Amino acid sequence: MKKILVTGGAGFLGSHLCERLLARGDDVLCVDNFFTGQRRNIAHLMGHPRFEFLRHDVTFPLYVEVDEIYNLACPASPVHYQFDPVQTTKTSVIGAINMLGLAKRTKAKILQASTSEVYGDPEVHPQPETYWGRVNPIGPRACYDEGKRCAETLFFDYQRQHGVDIRVMRIFNTYGPRMHPDDGRVVSNFIVQALKGDDITLYGSGEQTRSFCYVDDLIAGMIACMDIDSTVAGPIDRPINFGNPSEISVHDLARQVLALTGSTSRIVHRPCPIDDPRQRQPNIDLARKATGWRPTTDLREGLHRTVAYFHDTLVIEGHESRTQAQA
Ligand code: NAD
Ligand code: UDP
Ligand code: UDP
User: Fold this and answer.
1) Which ligand is nearest to the CA of 176?
2) What dihedral angle (degrees, nearest 10) is formed by the CA atoms of 146, 152, 177, 56?
3) Residue 134 contacts residue 120 (beta carbons within 8 Å)
4) Using CA positions, which residue lies closest to atom 4 of ligand 3?
5) How far is the CA of 264 from the centre of ligand 1 (A)?
6) Predicted TM-score (pTM) of this structure
7) Which of 203, 209, 264, 316 has a CA 20 to 30 Å removed from the CA of 48?
8) For ligand 3, atom 1, which residue shows the shortest CA distance?
């Protein structure tokens, strides 16, 4: 049985990861400061004999004994990471230093949840790991993009300088149950708006694209990435993209959500956020080669499951879900 630390474990991806690791038989220490995470994401794990929760901010040192570290702590939604940008950079950079120091001392394997945002608004499409990106270092997204880029630098320097066994995953847009209803990211926004009968807020023209991966697929990829045996494969000297390459415009996503929910919400246009990337699609050849992983849930099926989750959540919170109530 391995003792595994998951930072950001009460968040959207982290809570699914904790659940999957427990199901596999691991001992899980979940660390979170509840900045964007929710107690209810992990409420069902609280009584589990192999699950432990610690309220802690990763910008402060943490002394525990573990075999593996998944470093997910960081707000991921543009709305939330721009709310306190200095704290976002601190979380990415100081959080990475602390977790790498912990990995170095305990000789634990460590995985960094990096992001497609390191490519910024890309001129190369789809994005391979060899592309260095096009990031505005002083714009409103920089606290996240540059914070994550610096964290990648630290990971590879701890590998070269201290021999730490690292994995850096560049995660592309992932969605699914347990996103916060007020998270601000596009899939949760559109579904919650459609279910409440509110206007669907399309930023800019809606022609910008993203490639959406269902959470269960992403978590399977994350565990496969951690499980790469570097004693056989050698040190993992490159970041690896994980995501679903099927690309869609944000406008088409809005139409698909409306069709799936049967909602009569109107689509309304809002200003495009500064530095909003115009296109995004992962090249996942390296992930396939290194782990054999590939996503298997198509967008329709993933959205269907996510709509069901938000419907239940809104009912519990006492909001009337107009489309479902009418059905
Ligand atoms: P999330 O906001 O739901 O989860 C982040 C978690 O980190 C939250 O529980 C939050 O409370 C916690 N946290 C934030 N700052 C902290 C701190 N200083 N100390 C301790 N805990 C802290 O977001 P998510 O979608 O689950 O993202 C998880 C990770 O994956 C993030 O690092 C994010 O950058 C990365 N990622 C996610 C996506 C995606 O599409 N979901 C894409 C790329 C990268
Ligand atoms: N650290 C931690 N837990 C540990 C070991 C280290 O949180 O078990 C933190 C500690 O705050 C330190 C940082 O990680 O500042 C980097 O550790 P490292 O050993 O690389 O550097 P140093 O201790 O020399 O600053
Ligand atoms: N977006 C939108 N309406 C919303 C929220 C987001 O049109 O209510 C757009 C946003 O401008 C971006 C895309 O959807 O082009 C994805 O945004 P999100 O915040 O989910 O993630 P990111 O920009 O980090 O990929």
Assistant:
1) 1
2) -90
3) yes
4) 186
5) 32
6) 0.97
7) 316
8) 186
Q: CATH assignment of 186-209+245-326? A: 3.90.25.10
Note whether 200 and 187 are within 8 A (CB): no
Domains of the chain, by residue range, sit at 3-176+213-242, 186-209+245-326
Q: Which two tokens stand for residue 25?
A: 């038989």
Contact 310, 192 (CB under 8 A): yes
What is the set of active-site residues? 144
CA dihedral 60, 74, 103, 59 (to 10 degrees): -10
Looking at this protein, which amino acid is placed at residue 327?
Answer: A
Q: If one looks up domain 3-176+213-242 in CATH, what number appears?
A: 3.40.50.720
| Mutation probe of ligand 3 site: the residue of 114, 118, 203 with most atoms within 8 A of C-beta | 203
Residue nearest to atom 25 of ligand 3 (CA): 173
